[in-house]
Amino acid sequence: MARTIRFAAETNATQVLDIYAPVVTDTAISFEETPPSRSEMAGRIRNTMEHYPWLACEEAGRVLGYAYAGAFRSRPAYRWAAEVTVYVNQEEQRRGVASALYTSLLGILLVQGFTEALAGITLPNAGSVALHERFGFQRVGVFEKVGFKFEAWHDVQWWALHLQQSHDPHGAPTPLPEVRAGSPGLVESLL
């Protein structure tokens, strides 16, 4: 069966949640303490897709992993930076799913006009560190003991990838729906 990368839909919320819930309940990778509901996850996908990409890697109708981007911070001066995240079903890890998702995600962010991709990794997480190093992300700092979960303090290491040269400071990255409408097929060619 061939794997495909495509834009996620609200109808993927259950499968996305199947991947994410164990990360919340069994690890410190996510600082959420309770998994979101199916409807909350559907809302997250819908709200993200209003401006940023949310992608799913699928095989035979089964979501193997997903990746998305979002605002790094809410202040307007940060609008050229996007925070990126990828999650892969445990059974599919180290089989190229995360790399395929990141390749498409970062390509779309570039087309949208973002200049920086940023990622926070709860330590230790050797797999995520290796993935970000492979894509050329650089370590930019560590927030020590910033999250408390499972009766322990956890550090978060921040990574940055420079996507392209800074451009017109009066413009802003183009929302995903506008890029898709203005250049039919361009974004989809990156999937």
Give a quick precis of the structure.
Helix content is 30%, strand content 31%. It is an alpha+beta fold and 191 residues long.
Classify the fold: give the CATH topology: Aminopeptidase
Number of helices: 5
What's the CATH first level? Alpha Beta
Shape, per Cα inertia axes:
globular
Instruction: Tell me the structural class.
Output: alpha+beta
The helix-strand sequence is: EHHEEEHEHEEH
Largest sheet: 7 strands, mixed
Percent helix: 25-40%
Work out the strand percent: 25-35%
CATH level-4 homologous superfamily: Gcn5-related N-acetyltransferase (GNAT)
Please give the number of β-strands: 7
Number of domains: 1
Radius of gyration: 16 Å
Average pLDDT for all residues: 94
What does this structure look like?
This protein has 191 residues and is of the alpha+beta class. The chain has a single domain (3-190), classed as Gcn5-related N-acetyltransferase (GNAT) (Aminopeptidase), CATH 3.40.630. Helices cover 30% and strands 31% of the residues. The protein has helices spanning 13-26, 38-49, 97-112, 126-134, 176-182; strands spanning 3-7, 54-59, 62-71, 81-88, 116-122, 138-149, 152-162. A 7-stranded mixed β-sheet has the order 1-2-3-4-5-7-6, with helices on both faces. Helix 1 packs across helix 2 (38-49). The protein starts with a strand and ends in a 9-residue tail after the last helix. The mean pLDDT is 94.
